[in-house]
């Protein structure tokens, strides 16, 4: 037996050796670079050009499988079916917890690896199935109107860099040979709205703002994070397309920072070079310019013209060889051309996806992301309450948990459900009250039919409907998945909303259901609680049919470009079982379906909400924004919104009216805000005793909010963005000058400052200690302070270190974050928190005359506190100029 095994092993090794000799790119003893070059040398020019597009086809004669480079993972594996959904990036930034962010990214990469290998086993090589992830977004959230600001880590370059580096380390792993995933730092560099103009405008910040604000996070991810990929932007920067900028990509990224990876364009950004920016006259010229200036990979199809560009003399084949070699070096470093047993990451089992430990981490991240903006003693809520009214448009909306770029959570917990779970016997009455925004035909307005009134069959102990999920769009064949769904209220990730050119590869329910062209049949019985006239409503994107007792009562069996609904009024008897069947299909792109009703005698939603408030001991208003109204280049506009950006920083008008009506009842109102950007809630700050910011908190966000409201957890998050007042005049949105923006350059009084966040306990600060009063411009200063939990509850304090230059010059920031630590302290516990302040990094400023960074000599102040305006201790020091 052992001789047989030895013989088999020898034959296998011989086969590997012969394959490596015939195909040197499979020689695992050689470097990835040399292997990639050997493979590229065997390709035709047309094959090389095809490999430089995100949807790279297979080259069967060379053993190269098809591969799509496009994957998303800002806060969980996105658009690839079921996956753990963590708080949106802005919420992760609000944790001010760098180790936690790395742990989250590590978990995302575990699920991504497991999914990829499962896809490969199934023979799938499509979009959202690979190992190259276009995350994180480290653009500076300089203006609260930007709809995509939710994807970032906020307005501060230092915070963004720390979070971004941790995220990259978590995604790419720690193996010395193989990358776990490729992370992508996007979008280099001066890119943060307006969304409607991103294909046209030319950003021209001062060189000081460029180097002190827009570039530092990218530099940190390249130098410290060793990020393997960088994505360009749509807009121009100093007249050059950001995705074909010699200045950004050749001079800064590669020459100055020593970047060794590859650059990918934003999707269809190469089209903009000739079509919108009109920098060059043709597709061929645009493709050649982008490659020559450093963009190796295109998301799009313009690179298909590269062979023609070579023939026209616009670019050489050698330049294309260099680009393709970089791309295949990356794929080989990911282990795509090596035996699976050699790649540590290939052993991650499919069972890790949505593992219980991942759900627990999603809950922890949500808990740490919550920011208590205001509290006049009403929180934590008393356990002696008899009745709570939960009111507002985002209380029971799953979209309020998700933001954008998300996967499908297995069991998302809305804020309403989280409050009910935490209330433990206290009666909770829910009323939506108003739609999210004015003028929106909102199918979410009708309450879902609750599981209590649904059953899969007459003799079933379960509650809900039997769901049969098909791989076809016409309910044909054998169901790929059968399960009981408690309610019919689903929204699957809608993919990129850029334009109709995008094939958006949606995320279906998972479990082998395809991304597009699937269908579902729900069946069972509906048992009404009272007799009378009901209005039953269904809505879907795309089509649906509803049957009651075998009669078709609603029929919208056709494609649609958004969630659309209709209703029917029926007289139903209490306790009688009505046969119910709902059929649904998804064609492509958007995917969602819901089944709701209004019971007999139901009052208008606004009146119902106010009545609920009057009868309650306390009111929890849950409102704000969702990814339906703020996001990326959206085609829908509502009052206060334009193309996904915001034109009004206040709560939408219907929500303001409801909030004021709730306040008029005289009952205490607690406000819970959802959203991905700053909200000007001036009226609430004056009139509402408690305000909690929950962001888009992920799949367990509702649990975290419920726990925080009742004091089971102590909020400790901090604002990564400034909250401005409603009347504050902002600089022009398309002006990229930093003056007047963010806590660093805003001269007015904010509503809530950067770094702000309250607690249910109190923290005292001791004297700030410096190990020296003088340092050189290349020296290090140790800063430390003692923190004490002086309250009666355990809690987290985020100790923030700011530095300001005492002899401020024009263009200087008022102060800059240069360190932070989140520490947990029990009541009465003390801890010394220390920072090492390196002058050449922490105090550098860009000198436009010298065209280089310098550390100005002079007097500085170290400032430690609980926010950018709540400074508890200070100490001055002097920087001495070094010798030339």
TrEMBL record:
The keyword Iron does not apply. One of its GO terms (biological process) is arabinan catabolic process. Residues 460-613 form the PA14 domain. GO terms for molecular function: alpha-L-arabinofuranosidase activity; beta-glucosidase activity; xylan 1,4-beta-xylosidase activity. Pfam families: Fn3-like, Glyco_hydro_3, Glyco_hydro_3_C, PA14. Keywords: Hydrolase, Signal. InterPro entries: BXL (IPR044993), Fn3-like (IPR026891), GH (IPR017853), Glyco_hydro_3_C (IPR002772), Glyco_hydro_3_C_sf (IPR036881), Glyco_hydro_3_N (IPR001764), Glyco_hydro_3_N_sf (IPR036962), Ig-like_fold (IPR013783). It comes from the Bacteria. The keyword Transcription regulation does not apply. Transmembrane segments: none annotated. Residues 1-19 form the signal peptide. Belongs to the glycosyl hydrolase 3 family. This is Beta-D-glucoside glucohydrolase.
